[in-house]
């Protein structure tokens, strides 16, 4: 294997996705091929605590380079790994204050290291400033650039202090889009001065704080990138990010499987464009072999590209060595995390309308699930009722105090911010009689809940937030 082929593989991180029935077993051939090529790491989606730890141990033992093992951990390590602590989305933490954000990041990093993950793909540094944005919403800390920057810095510092790399995303900001880059290329046509004053501010803050990685947005900004997405824009990445902002860490793509990145390009063409623009790592491409071949070929014909590839390889290697090695999770620490995570989730539940209700005896639950229909499994919708039962209440099909659970989380396949027409009809029908409403989504969904019914916001449909909402509704006021 030549030097250029090794470098080409090392800047690519394929994804490994857990299967509910087979675990990681069906990925054995893919893993063997990736390790033989010499990839620089992997991105993990899903899994259970012990199998994930076993997998990451095996990956490290079989790799000839120190690996970056990444995962989307915006809502705690339990977002991906069952058996670890689930936490509220970042927006749910905002009202709890900076120290709560640090606690959340600290717990996330400790548990990530405990299963061999050394790179958390968070925090989101985007702004929640577009009501019709289908993909940011509760994933952001909020709309105020200064506050988002301050809280993102707190998250980054606490995470990296525990030896896990953080990643500010999605540069230069995904908050103004009304389209989802998973499905198409969004265009944000606003003056560069506006972006500099608002959207870029949180990224500047995290860069100044030493964030290990910055992830690009598959979004076009005509004032900055022309018709190209930020991921492929040299003026933005090599120019603004490196030269103007002085960023020296890893610049990484958002998932290259997304249509906002492909837009008629082959995976290999996308990878070469991203590296040429100033990205260091290519995350989650569709065709691992094709991308490696295309990058190797580009390095062979273009000395300038080959030099940049070596610089990216060196940055990746430095980052992998900067991350601390895995630890073993202490059961006492995990118990403390479980209790504190539950407290943070309960404290994050917010009353949006009416007086705070209290459930006392029998409860009848209606579910309107706007999150069904996507390609990935959803969290069980039974956690809310299970928690009520554990607290001594009765859950019955008819005749109890009525609760409507409205699941309206951020999902990449939806392509919309609000409820579907069918979900809106079902909500209206369910609220023909009095009920308490729990919204597992953005507080803006309040506008889609008719009548004067009491409404609580529990931010996301994760099991942790279902448990938290049930506890909140049974507390004495």
Summarize the structure in short.
By secondary structure, the chain is α/β, with parallel strands linked by helices. Helix content is 41%, strand content 13%.
Account of the 3D structure:
There is one protein chain. The protein folds into two domains: 320 residues, Alpha-Beta Barrel (TIM Barrel), CATH 3.20.20.300; 126 residues, Rossmann fold (3-Layer(aba) Sandwich), CATH 3.40.50. The strands form four sheets. A six-stranded mixed β-sheet has the order 10-15-14-13-11-12. β11, α16 and β12 form a beta-alpha-beta unit. It is an alpha/beta fold and 477 residues long. The chain contains 18 helices and 15 strands. The model has no long low-confidence stretch (mean pLDDT 96).
| Corresponding CATH superfamily of the largest domain | Glycoside hydrolase, family 3, N-terminal domain
CATH topology of the largest domain: TIM Barrel
Query: What structural category arises from helix and sheet content?
Result: alpha/beta
* Count of distinct strands: 15
The top level CATH class name of the largest domain = Alpha Beta
Q: Quick check: average pLDDT?
A: 96
In the CATH classification, which architecture of the largest domain applies?
Alpha-Beta Barrel
Task: Report the β-strand fraction as a percent range.
Answer: 5-15%
How many strands, which pairing sense, and closed or not: the largest β-sheet?
A: 6 strands, mixed
> How many domains in all?
2
- The residue fraction in helices comes out at 40-55%
Straight-line distance between termini: 68 Å
Which spans of ≥5 residues are poorly predicted at pLDDT below 50? none
> In one word, what is the shape?
globular
């Amino acid at each position: 294997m030549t030097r250029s082929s090794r470098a080409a593989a090392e800047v690519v991180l394929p994804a490994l996705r857990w299967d509910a029935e087979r675990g990681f077993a069906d990925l054995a051939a893919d893993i063997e091929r990736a390790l033989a090529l010499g990839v620089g790491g992997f991105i993990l989606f899903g899994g259970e605590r012990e199998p994930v730890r076993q997998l990451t141990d095996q990956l490290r033992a079989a790799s000839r380079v120190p690996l970056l093992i990444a995962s989307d951990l915006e809502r705690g390590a339990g977002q991906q790994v069952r058996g670890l602590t689930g936490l509220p989305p970042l927006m749910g933490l905002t009202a709890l204050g900076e120290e709560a954000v640090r606690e959340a990041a600290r717990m996330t990093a400790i548990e990530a290291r405990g299963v061999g993950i050394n790179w958390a793909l968070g925090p989101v540094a985007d702004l929640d400033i577009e009501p019709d944005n289908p993909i940011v919403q509760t994933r952001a800390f909020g709309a105020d650039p200064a506050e988002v920057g301050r809280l993102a810095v707190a998250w980054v510092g606490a995470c990296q202090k525990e030896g896990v790399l953080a990643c500010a995303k999605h540069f230069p900001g995904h908050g103004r889009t009304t389209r989802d880059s998973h499905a198409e290329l969004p265009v944000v046509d606003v003056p560069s001065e506006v972006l500099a004053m608002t959207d870029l501010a949180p990224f500047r803050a995290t860069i100044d704080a030493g964030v290990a990685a910055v992830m690009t947005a598959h979004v076009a900004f005509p004032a900055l990138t022309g018709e190209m997405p930020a991921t492929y824009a040299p003026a933005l990445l090599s120019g603004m990010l490196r030269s103007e902002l002085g960023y020296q860490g890893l610049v990484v793509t958002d998932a290259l499987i997304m249509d906002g990145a492909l837009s008629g390009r082959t995976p290999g063409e996308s990878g070469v464009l991203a590296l040429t623009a100033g990205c260091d790592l290519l995350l989650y491409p569709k065709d691992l072999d094709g991308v490696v071949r295309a990058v190797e070929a580009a390095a062979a014909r273009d000395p300038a590209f080959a030099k940049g590839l070596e610089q990216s390889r060196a940055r990746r290697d430095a980052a992998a060595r900067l991350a601390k090695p895995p630890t073993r999770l202490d059961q006492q620490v995990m118990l403390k995390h479980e209790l504190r995570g539950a407290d943070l989730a309960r404290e994050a539940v917010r009353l949006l309308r009416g007086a705070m209700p209290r459930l006392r005896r029998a409860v009848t639950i209606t579910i309107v699930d706007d999150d069904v229909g996507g390609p990935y499994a959803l969290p069980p919708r039974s956690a809310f009722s299970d928690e009520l039962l554990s607290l001594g209440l009765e859950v019955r099909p008819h005749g109890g105090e009525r609760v409507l659970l409205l699941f309206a989380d951020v999902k990449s396949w939806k392509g919309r911010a609000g409820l579907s027409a069918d979900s809106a009809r079902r909500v209206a029908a369910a609220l023909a009689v009095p009920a308490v409403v729990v919204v597992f989504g953005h507080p803006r969904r309040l506008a889609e809940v008719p009548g004067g019914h009491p409404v609580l916001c529990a931010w996301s449909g994760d099991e942790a937030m279902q448990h938290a909402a049930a506890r909140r509704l049974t507390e004495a006021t």
